[in-house]
Every structure is written in C-alpha cells, then in structure tokens.
Amino acid sequence: MLSVNNIEVIYDHVILVLKGTSLEVPDGSIVALLGANGAGKTTTLKAISNLLHAERGEVTKGSIEFDGTQVHDLSPNELVKRGCIQVMEGRHVFEHLTVEENLLTGTYTRKESRSAIAEELEKTYTYFPRLKERKSSQAGYTSGGEQQMLVIGRALMSKPKMILLDEPSMGLAPQLVEEIFEIVKDLNQHEGVSFLLAEQNTNIALRYANYGYVLENGRVVMDGKASELRENEDVKEFYLGVGGEGRKNFRDVKNYRRRKRWL
Amino acid sequence: MSAENNTGDVLLSVDHISLAFGGVKALTDINFEIRKKEIFAIIGPNGAGKTSMLNVINGFYHPQDGEIHFKGLHRKQMRPHEAAVQGIARTFQNVALFKGMSTLNNIMAGRNLKMKANLFWQALYYGPARKEEMENRKFVEDIIDFLEIQAIRRTPVGKLPYGLQKRVELGRALAMEPELLLLDEPMAGMNIEEKQDMCRFILDINEQYGTTIVLIEHDMGVVMDLSERLIVLDYGRKIAEGNPDEIRGNQAVIDAYLGVAHTN
Amino acid sequence: MEFLTAIFIQPFFDMVDDPVLFLQVIWEGFVTGILYSLIAFGFVLIFKASGVFNFAQGIMVVFAALTLVGLHENGVPAFIALPITIVVMYALAFSVERLVLRSLVNQPDIILFMATIGLTFFLIGFGEFIFGGEPKMMITEELLLPYDSITFFDDMLILQEIDIAASVIAVIALIILALFLGKTKIGIALRAVADDHQAALSVGVSLNTIWVVVWFISGIIALITGIMWGAKSDVSFALSIIAFKALPVLILGGFTSVPGAIVGGLIIGIGEKIGEFYWGHLVGGSIEGWLAYMIALVFLFFRPQGLFGEKIIERV
Amino acid sequence: MFYREAGQFKSSYVADQELFPVKQDRLGIFLIIGFSFIVIPLIANDYWLQAILIPFLIFSLAALGLNLLTGYAGQLSLGTGGFMAVGAYSCYKLVTVFPETNVILLILLSGFISAGVGLIFGIPSLRIKGFYLAVATLAAQFFFEWLFGRVKWFYNYNDSGAIEVQVRKVFDIAVTGPVATTQARYMVVLCIVTVLALIAVNIVRGRIGRAWMAIRDMDIAAELIGIRPLTTKLIAFAISSYYAGVAGALYVFTYLGSAEVEVFDINISFEILFMIIIGGLGSISGAFFGAAFIVLIPILITNLPLILGIPINTATVEHFNFMILGALIVLFLIFEPHGLAKIWSILREKLRVWPFPY
Amino acid sequence: MKNKIFLTLIASVISCLWLSQGVMAAKGIYIPLFTYRTGPFAGSGIPNANGMSDYLNMLNERDGGIGGVPLIVEECETGYNTKKGVECYEKVKPNNPVVINPYSTGITLQLIPKSPVDKIPVHSMAYGLSAAADGSVFPWVFNYPSTYWNQASAIIKYIGYQEGGMSNLKGKKIGFIFLESGYGREPIPLFEELSAELGYELFTIPVAFKESQNQSSHWLKVRKEKPDWMIMWGWGVMNPTAIKEATRIKFNMEKFVGVWWSGGEDDARPAGKAAKGYKSSNFHGIGTNYPAIQDILKYIVDKGKSQVKDRSRVGENFYMRGVFNSVLVAEAIRTAQGKYGNRVITSAEMRWGMENLNLTSARLAEIGLPGFANPIKVTCDDHANNGPIYIQQWNGTSWERVSGWINSMDRVRPMLEKAAADYKAKNSVPDRTIPCS
Q1: How many CB pairs under 8 A join A and D?
Q2: Over the stretch B204-251, which tens digit does the pLDDT of each residue have?
Q3: Four-way CATH pick for B1-87+179-264: 3.10.50.40, 1.20.140.10, 3.30.230.70, 3.40.50.300
Q4: Does one domain contain both E158 and E265?
Q5: Structural domains in chain E (count)
Q6: Are residue E228 and residue E302 in the same domain, yes or no?
Q7: Which residues of B touch A230 (CB under 8 A)?
Q8: Would E12 be classed as within a structural domain?
Q9: How far apart are CA D9 and CA B140, in angstroms?
Q10: Most CB within 10 Å of its CB: which of B12, D181, D245, D261?
Q11: pLDDT in tens, E40-82
Q12: String of b and e for E235-251 (b: at least 16 CB within 10 Å)?
C-alpha cells in the first residue's frame, strides 16, 4: 500500500535529516517505526503526508508511493482524499473548536450527505465513548488522553485507508496508552485501516505492530517482524532496556555508557 | 510515619490546597509534605491535576484555599519569579526552552537571579558586568560538563532533538542552584537509553547538590525506582501516599491508574 | 473648577439641552461605526481563517472602489463595472493566495503581517499605475444608491439615505457571515485553520481553497465599504488611512469575533463622535485620531483579548 | 578557505566571550569602521552623504532600537515614529533652553526623555501581547503626532509650526544648522551610531539581553526562572525608545534641518519595522542591512531610468517604486523569512566549510 | 546562489548610484520641478505638475527656450514627503539649478535655511513661510504673488463687502475650519486680531490629516455654532469631504469660502450640484482662453508631449496655477538675462532676476496671458508682492469669477515683518549682505 524508497530529506537547504530511508507498509498491517529522538521518525511521516513543505524541508532524492501513485505531486488535501492521513505528534487539536467540531473537520474532504456524516460520527463515538461525553466542550480544555483520542478520531472521520500515527503514547498514563493501542488494534481489525506508527515506547509498539523498522541517524538500521525484533538482543538492550539478566533498576544503571550516541 | 523516615526536615508542606478554574475543580483539599533531600513523586492519570499542583507550588496558579509552607515561610500567593528567588526551579511537560537562544544562553539565562551588574556596566561590558559574566559562565560550563552537552553549546535549542532539549531544560533549572527542583515528565518521549541517562542525572543532582526533587512521571519503572515517597492524584484528589512498595499494592491506585499490577 | 465643570458637567448639560443634536451626533457615530465595522469584518475574517493580520484590508477597500470607479470612468456602465470589479477582487484573492500565502505557510505571524504590508505597497503602486493618482468620484447615482436626505424635527435631524442603506447592507452582511462561519463545513474548516495551520493541513483541509474564499469575501466586504465611504468623500489612495480606524475597533472587539467587530465598531464610532463633539474642544479639537485608540486601550487593560475575543488558553 | 576558524583556539572564557571570536570577523569589522570614518568622508560627495548615508545611519539607529524591543524582547511596536518625535522635540526644547551646551550632549540627553515616555507606553505590555500590543503602541504614535502639532510650546510658538534647527558648534565646527558641512554632520551621526551600536551589542550579549530573549521565546518559563516580566519589558521599552529618541533628534538636527510633526507620521514607524524584518529580527547587523535595503532600493528605482536614459515620467517611476518595493518585501519574506542577517550568516557558514558542502 | 544574487544586487545598487552623479551635464538652464503625482495629495499635485512642466516645455518647443537658451526641465517626485524632498534637493543641487520650487510647505521650511548657504533661491509661490515676504531677512526666498496672511485679510474684507460694509461684521460669527498643520494654523493670529478689531466672533475647528475623510463631527460642531460664514484652509482630500459635509448639514454654500488651495475642480465636483455656490479665493485666471494656453495645447498637449490625460483638464484651476508658477520662473529668468545677457544664468543671477521681477499687465499680454493675473512687482524688501485676490464661485460644473481684485489690508505687512524678525531672532539669521540692486 505504501512504499518509501530511499528518500533523502533536507531542511532549510542545509540540514540533512534522512539519508536514504526505505520502508514498506503492506495493506491492513500495523508497522512500527522505532528509534531515538532525532532519528528521523517524524520527518519520515511528514515526508509521506507531504507536510514537510510547510517546515522548509524537502525530499531531495528517492520516491514515495501510496496506492500506486507518486506522493510527491499530491497536496496533503489530495492525499487525505485518497485515504492517507497523518495524526501529528503533540496532539494538535483545534483548541477553540468543540470536540464535535474537531471531529467534523475530519470530514472536510468527504462529499457526503449530512446524515452519512452523522452516522460516521456515531461510529467514531463508539470507538471513543469518552469523546461523546465531552462533545460540546472546547477541545483546548480536554485532558491529554482525550486530546489524543480526539485527533485519532478526527483522522478516522476522513475514512482513511491508512493512518500515520506519530508518538501516540507521548505523555500519557500507562493505562491510557494501553487503551489507545487497543483502539488502534480494533480499528486495524474492524475497519481495515493500516497504521504506520512512529513510537518511542518500543515495548508497547512491538506488542501491537506486525512489523518494525528501527531508524537511527536517518537510516534504517534494522527491520523485521515485530516478534523477531522483540527477541533481538540489540533491540532488547538499547530499546527495551532489558539486558542479559532481565530488567535493570534505574538506580543501578552504571555511570558510563557502552556506546556514545551522536549529539 | 515521619518519625521512622529519616530523610530530613520538612522543606515544603502543602496545606489543604484547593484550586478551581471557573467552577471546574482542578485540585481539592490536597495535603502533603516534602522533606529535604528526598526524591518525591506525584503520579496519577492524565488530567488528575499533577501539573496544576506544580503550578501552585511555584506560584503560577493561585489556589482559592489552603497554604504552602516553604522553608518555614508560609504563603497563599506569590508571583512565579518570587518562587524562583526562594529557590524553586522546574522543568516543563512540553519543553519550555527559549527556542531562539543557544544552549549556553539558555542555561546562562538560568543564572539571571545570580547576576546583579547594572545597566551602565552592561552597556560597556566592562568591570563588574564582565567579571560576573565570566564567573557565571564558569558555573554554567560545569553544568554543561555534568550533563554532557558540550557539543551543542552553541546550537540554538529549537534545532535540538527532543531528548536533548529536555536535558538543556534540566541544565537551565540547575543553573538556578535550586533547593527544590520540580520535574514535570522529564522522561516523556524518551527511549530507554535516554531515560537511563536522565535517571542518572537526577540521582546525581540529588546526591551531589542535595537538591530536593519533585517528579511527575508516567514511566512507573522510573518512578518506583527513583522516588522515596510518592502521592497519587486522581480527579484532583489525593488517593494515596506512601513509599513505592505501598503504592504498588494499593488497590485504589491500581483501579484508578496502574490498571494491572505493574511489571515493565 | 471651571475646567472641571467643562469636563464633567457642561457636556451632559449640552446633551440634554439639545437632544435632537445629540441624536444627530449618535447617528453620525453610528454610521461611521458601521463603516469601521465593515473594515474590521474583513480583518477578522482573514485573521480567523489564516491567522494573518491583514494590513492590506484598508488598501483593498480603496483598490476595490478605485477599480469600480476607474472602469466606469473608462466607459464601462456601472452595472457591468460592478461584476467586473467582483471578478477583479476574486483574481486578487486568488493571486494573493498563489503568490504570497502559499509560500508563507507556517511562518510566524509577524512575517505574514509584513507580507500584507508589502502587498499594501504593491497595490498602491499598481492601483495608481492603472487608474492614475487623481481622486475620483464615487458613482453613487449610477449604482442606484439613494443620495437624498430625510429630515425630522423641522430639519433638525438630518439622515442621509445612503447612510441608511449602508447600515442595512452591513447588517445583512453580518448575518450572512455569522451563519456561514457557524454552520457550514467550510465555516468550521475555516476556524480550524485559524487554530492550527498544520493540523488543519493534516486532516486534509485545503488551506489554499479556504484562503481564496476568505480573501474573496473580504474583498467583497472591502468593495461594499469602498462604495459607502467613497460616497462620503471621494475615491483616492488617501482613503486607506481609514483602515487605521479599524484597528482600535479590532482590539476592542477582539481579532476573532465577528460580533465583536460590529459592537467594537459602534462603540468606537459613537464614542469618538461624542468625545470629539462634546469634549474635543477642551483640548483644541480633532482628537478623534487617537481617542479611538485610547478608548480601546482602556478596554484592553481590563480584557486583554478584547470584548468578544476568544479566551487565551494558557498552559504550561 | 580563507575564512576558517581552525587553529584559533580559545583558552579562556574571556577570549571566548569576545565580541567577534573569529579573527576574520574582527578584521572585517575594523575595516568597515575604518572605511566609514576615514575613507567615506574623503571621497563621498554631498549627495551621497546627505541623501543616502546620513539617513541610512539614522534609520539604522532607529531600527536598532526597534530591534532591541521587537527582535530581542519580542514586543511588537508600531510607535517608533512617535518616540522619534519625542526625541526630536525634546532635543529642540533642550537646545533652545540651553543654547550654550554641547549639542551632541543634548541629542544624547533627549533620548532619555524619549526613554521615559517609552517606559509609560510600555506599561500595557504587562497585560497585552502580540498584535494587541502593536495596536496599543499606535496609540502612542497618534497621540504624539497630535500633541506636537497642537501644543505650541513644543515648537516655541513658531509661526511656521515647525521646529527649526539653529547653528550649533562643537569645537568650533558647526555640526547642526544650515552652515554645517555634510561631512561634519555625517561624522556626528557616525560617532553616535557607532557608540550606540556597540552598547546595543554589549547589552544583548549580557544578562539583560538574555532576559529579553527569554521573555520573547517563552514568557512563562522566563518568569519561572526568576525574570521579572514587567521590569524586563519596561527596560526594553526604555532602551528602545532611547535609541528611537536619539535617532529622531538626529533626523531633525543633522538631516532635515527643520521639521513639522508630519515627518514622524505612521509611515516612518512602518518603514523601520520593515527594516528590522527584512534585515533580520533579533540581529544587530540586521538593523543595518535592513536600513540599507529600505533606504537604498527606492532611491535606486527612482534613479535607474534616469541613469539608463529611459524616458519615463516620474509618476510612473514612483508607482513602480511602490510596486517593486512591495513585491521585494514579499519576495524576501518568502525567500528568507529570517532576513538579510540570516543570509549573511548562511553565507559565512558556507564560507567556513568552503569548498566542501555540508 | 541566492547570496550571489543578493551581493550582485547590492553591488549594482552602489555602482549605479555612483554613476548617477554628473549625468546632467547638458547645456541649458536647469529648472528642477519638485512635483507630487503620487501620494495623498496627488489630486492637487498632478494638475499642478502638468501646468508647470507644460508651460516650460512649450517655451522650449515654441521659442527654443528663453533668450535662445534651452531649458532643462526635470521633475523630481516628492510625494509631498519631506524626506524625499531632501533626496530631490541633494540630487538636483550639483546640476546648478537656478531656482527650487519645493511645492510643499514642509520641504520649503527645510530649504529656507539652506538657501543662503547653497546660494540657490527658493520660490514658494503663495505657500510656505509667510514671513519670507521680508526680503531683508530672507534674501533667497520668494513667495510672491501673495501670502496666506494677505489672503486671509482679503477674505475678511470680501465677507465685509458681502455683509454690506466692514462695520456690519460686528456680531457676526465666522467659523474657520483648517487642516491641522503649520499651514492651516497660520492665519489664525490674523483672524483673531481682526476679530478683536472688527467685532466678529471667531471659532476654529482643526481637522487632523487622518480625519480628512471623516469630518462628520467637525461639521456637526459647525451646525451647533450656526456661523454666518465659514472659511476653510483645506488641502488634498480634506477639501471634497468638507464640501460634501457642508452640503449634508445644509450649510449655505454661498457663505463658505475656501483658501486658494481649496479651489480645485476636483474639490467641488464630488459634492455634485449641492456644492453649487461654494467659493474660493484665487489669484490668477482659469480656462483656455489665453494665447499662451492655446500654444500649450498646440505645441505640447496635441503632440502628446504632455502628461495630461484628458485635453479638457487643461485650463483647470490647479493646472493654471502650475502654469503661473512657470510663468513667474520664466519671467524671472528673462529679467536676469536682461541684466546678465542671454546665456545660461547662475542661481545667484536668478536670485537677482526674481528680486527685480516686474510683471506688468502689458508684459502679461505680451506673453499671451492678458488679464491673467494682477501685475507683480517684487522689491528688495518685499518678496511677496502682497498681491490681491479675487473670489470665484462653483456653479455646479465650473468656476466663475464673482469679484474684482481685492487688496489685502495694510496691517498685514507689519505682521509679516514682525514674524520675520521673530524668525531671525530665534534662528540667529545673519544680516542681509546682498546689495539691493
């Protein structure tokens, strides 16, 4: 469904962020994109959804294909119409709109009757019952978890085939993280939505994903089935924090580091 | 309980604090004490009022009821910069660095309160102004060394990756030489390795400088390992208080927050 | 003492003494206020949709009026010139979006603000280049706008028919706009864009379409304002100075509120006329230029987001 | 190749905190200063000095002031023209009240009156932010335009309604008034601008500068690390108004020679805002770049057809002037929103690694 | 790449500007015209500029210049902006201009102190600083044919005549509405003095430039005061707005008199038929019924050498004012050539020519403008000529002359001298050293 081939992204004409990244998201799957901060996860997602332009970044090499078409010439609006939507990092809700109005913005690209949209709204509320409770309050005043649900729900309103989900777990309580990932799984199973998931929380991401890519320094350094990655020693050590003898207490982490990370 | 716990005297105590925004209750009748040199954690679901609590402590919000006692002084209201003068520093949930400034300048800004040279000398950049600039620069360089961010000294922080920004923010708070350091989700969005680094910094700060630390964090591994005592908030109320082991087993906490008994 | 009387007693005495004249002052203030509101409308609309503080609104008023009059001067009948002007305003909206806004997505507010000042310069030069710098007469009669006056109380209260027409048209425009913003899909999308460009982009809102739409609507409003104000004096680039009078209206009403623009316009309009008429002479008169700003500033001190502005959500 | 800092190591914080840590920069700045002080007065004619360089320097100074306020402290102001007027009129009053005092001293003093006024109009900044504040500063602009036109005391009851500059001598050389040579006036302006620019650089790299930037970037966080928002903003308003005031005094005393309050109208405020945005917000050199751009471009456009011998009437040229200036502003913002100073620094960055990209 | 573009741009700007010096080296009498065809006052500035340059160009076309010497006429656009005026002045200065016509009070004020230093005469025709009428203080500045004070006194006289004699002014109420600036405020002292003497009541209404198009409250005040007469010192967009507002409050337009800068066709026309009856003062003829104007049409306009858009606009009031300005310049050059010979004269010689200008009725007829203006005789002391004015009235489509020449009051000259003395004292102007012949 989505394939990214060897792309290079440069910001501001000078800062090279992605250096030949390739990945693929098959139809109906959840793919996780793992990596440290600054590895280029968000940039990859934005390159796909064509939001880079607004940040003075551009794809200088390689190609991205969604559903058989080159993404490069499509506006974000066109992409959403075709079923590829991004949920941005940091829960960008429309603060001054109500929850329901927020959801309705998701239907912007759809040319359907009011009743069809009302139906869609109901369906979204079944996935996110919490949103229904708060539907007429201003989105700016809802909690972090509700905002995260709101942005996913908003994306859902556009009837996407694929959602690019950026850091859904950031700053959320463990219970909520589980809840959100459960919803992701549900949507994947019942609605057939594919997910490309950029996530710091390797542990939970690999639990829900089918496949994973590990990104470091703008390059894919490792990829494989989620179950395989979970067993991989390096991943265990650097991303899951379970070394050879099980989980280390954070108090006991040694005062030196095995590997110098780039700064 | 305080009798058997020997961490030290009470540094800050929160007395029946209630806070509301236009009718919506954010905090209801909160009480707790923080002792000198301990690492104290506040946990709870999103929207439980954790950040509001920090905002009350450092004077950004003014509670309708209750009082805060800090270093023996008690107060109902104060301006944030007064809190800073008294030695309270903090970091933010969404990094609140000065994006247009370099790492060095961000941390130097933290020294603001320690610098006194008047406008005249600053305009000339000579005499006392130059001298204090150098002294504080040295102090800041120590922090930079400590946090291992030498390589980004001159980089505008807006261009740094998130994890490093968090570290710079910690550096800025440290530059204030605080007695009480409030950390709001310092590990959010970090991978294990970065979290390990951050934990090490927090522990070192606590040990080396004897700084009292209040921590808000969602990673239960981190919270349980680092904190000596913690309280749990839910819907603006305190539902539990105790050491990590007590909290782990507390049914109310499990229901409201942890979901299942926590294993990583 | 005498001075205090002049400030605190005499003006009110004057008002009661000649109530018809007082009514006339209020009416003039009301009419001026309506025109301020119309300009502020255009601002608010663009600000809401694109976060752009459109300094060029004042010049758009002149540009629209000048195009209309200029076409007429070159032999185009008024009722053909009008639709052509509307097309020109659409072309303007379209080119602004294509050439300016599109390239400036996500830039800081001040950059967009500056861009509109650049646009102002361009339009001044362009407009004068095409139509010449000479002041022109508004073609009130040709557009079938009434130009007589109605008098009451033995000629003591004089209402101009064109002022009445301006008020009616402004009210209709307000109602249409309010419905448009609150109820339609584009209206909601428009407010979404105002909140967060990037997020709006990410849900598939086409910024480009939205911007063309709002700039076009603002252009139409500018045209209405231009006709009405042009009828009061003449049409030349000096007219753009009145845009400065819309700014205090904006701070008073809040940058994002359509009702705010109306109420703010009326407060400023009536306030400055009463102020000038009953108090102005105490300091030598002609204080309208800054009085409006002072009124706005006083209000602002108590409500930093304006009377109707959305509350600023501040979080840390 | 030639622009490398390799090999220039700093062994102390003192050296590292130097104004221009890179040797080539240091050299460059000395060259520029030397050129302006020695070469220009020797070779430039009246037209260059009076019509281009003096206004360029004066506008640079005003832009510098506004950049301290808007670029560094983040407080948008459209009242620059008003503050310049305060400087100019107070200078006029001072000069007539103290006719024997050194006029340069009085020009510098008049800035303080402007600073005081700036302080008062800065008070709303405590509660008002962004464009709301910008509109509030317009109140200052319009109020002063009205005041100086209305109250005759400010212009000494002159029939013309204008303030007129008398001849004043410093070391027996006339520096103001009609008999002052353009060279003398240029040198006065240059000295004042150089000293004030140096002071601006010092202020922004010290504690106050950091406090300003902190307030600009994130006012809440700044407050929480102990920066007092009101004090900091007010200092910014005062210092910025000081610069504007001195610029205003110079504008009348060394450039126009006689002025009605209309010369300080709203357009001048906008011009100066243009300068700092085109030059680069939050950059000292940006103020100079921006002033050069805004002063030079219209003059160039006006003179270009004349030089090329294209017969075109002056009105059309002026129309094109507006169009081109407007288009250039928009283009610049699209091209490089961070202004000429940013282009300059990218250029330097490239020079540093030249001939290898990245 | 973009850096290169930028550097090239800067380099080309500097080199071009450097080159621009000394372009003007052609042989001829260099007459720069400061004009404003753009900006808020373009409405008045355009016809003025057209009249000025058309007449001079006509002399070139028809006679090959003055005294056989071609005129180099060059416009410099000021936009009525003082700063641009400085640039214009510095630009024309090296080309040895014989006279500067600043056409803006702000620019004039700024050039007055410079003129004796640079030795370039300034001619501010019926504007600028009234005190410049005193040639002993301002040897280099000329403002003939008249000053604002002369005019103001003449308008009061006219009103007196209309009321049936100056003594009837007693108890009358006269309103003065003016543009808030040095220009607008200037006649107030005179009106006040006359008010004390003649017993009429005066009230003043300033209009800030920004409020030019927003005058409803000002005119409501007029309504409240119920004056017998209104006098206006307006400029630019203020004029049509004021006239319109006056019609809206149903003010008797017969009793509304404007300054000579409020008498443009474009000022009265927008108010439509209602403006009928509005009056303004003037000091020269209008219309195309003069041989000289026919020559302009023939040699310039019809050959497409004029910037006039529409042939019918030749002969309008402000166009004719421009023509008159150029006539005065041309005649001063002739006067100078009469003494120094038919060659390119210097600015100092031009100054002499201006000071000794004697434009008689016969001479006016000779140059194709019979009865166009009152004769002008400039003297060493009197640079303003204290010329008379006449009153014209708007008939709905054009101006009609409705009075004879009205001389100003004698009391004006001492006031001018006092003002000049005041200026001299305040600005420590040195005594005149230039001999008077």
Answers
A1: 4
A2: 888 888 899 999 887 778 888 888 888 988 888 888 888 888 888 888
A3: 3.40.50.300
A4: yes
A5: 2
A6: no
A7: none
A8: no
A9: 20
A10: D245
A11: 888 888 999 999 999 999 999 999 889 889 999 988 888 888 8
A12: bbbbbbbbbbbbbbbeb
